[in-house]
Design a protein that fits this description.
This protein is of the alpha/beta class. Strands 3-2-1-4-5-7-6 form a seven-stranded mixed β-sheet, sandwiched between helices. Helix 6 runs antiparallel to helix 10 and helix 9 crosses helix 10. It is globular.
Length: 258
Amino acid sequence: MTNATLNFQIASGHQILAAAGKRYLRPGGRQATEQLFEWANFQPGETVLELASSFGYSAIALAKRYNVKVVGVEKNPDSVARSRANISAAGLENQVEIIEGDIFHLEAIPGKFDYVLAEAILTMQSPSGKAKILTGIHNKLKPGGKFLCHELLARDKEAEIHSELAKVIKVNSTPLSEANWINACATAGLKVQKQQTGAMALLNLSKMFEDEGISNTMRILWNILTKEPIRQRVLEMRQVFQKYRHELGYIIFCAVVG
């Protein structure tokens, strides 16, 4: 969906930030993802299932950096087409595959994997949705495989934060506490071995420079300042992030079939 056709009043928060030019949309920023990958300890030839792979950028980066094979699941057919074009341009057709599918029906994806990767996916689901996806992840992992996850954390006031976030992000954003994320995994048969929490990085200016680089951060700021529909939505999100700055953060964790 292009900016020209995007309805800025009802579009999801991540669509608004993408329209502003933001490329990295993880709550803990690139540094948290790097820690997750360090825990993973990917080995050449291993297999990764990535949930909601969008345009295939992270799948391509994983394949290039670690020489792993990546299967991405993406529901939006336009995103699937764009991701396949990106994979072809990178010359990685034999290493990266994007399947048009639904993360609620991972049983339709053939095979099992050494890793399942989900970043900023589960937060947006209801409790029952989280449970269904986590069960699907459990069933897609090989014995000894790892589930790598990067999500939004609510240290306190979960219900209150859920209500306010849903209003400004326009999706059913339901972050959990550290204990509740671990319990949700345990209910699905996934044992969290390592976890880390930290401050929210999504609209933190210093983190934006770190994740996006100087030129793209300046472009993002210019778009926010000069495009009123984007500015209004970003300011609404930032107000909630600021209001709950002591409660909102990120969590990354690595879990195995337990």
